[in-house]
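name: query_chain
kind: protein
chains: 1
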Amino acid sequence: MSRFGKLSDETRPTLSTRFSRSVEKKFESLKNFYARIFSFGLRHKTMVLITAIALLIGSFALFPMGLIGFAFMPEVDQGEFSVTLDMNQQVTIYRFSECCPLPWLRAMALN
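structure:
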């Protein structure tokens, strides 16, 4: 009986039946793989604990080695930003300065 395809063993071998059976076999092999890993972890608890602690310490060691940075943004804020406007090529700078609601941006466009 197939778990995913709802197929009994007596169905005729169509393309969907073969696909469903192959998915079922892959799922069973994955389930068996995870069962072996899980049973290994349960039998060797100290090894799993030592490995987890070593990985935790190793991940903290990445910071002083310079492989991982401490901040996502630079600490220095320069207080400026950049504005890029893409307009239709038929719009002239004079027409843009009339439509632009920001006076400082309008002054930049005319310069």
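note: The chain has two domains: 1-71, 81-111.
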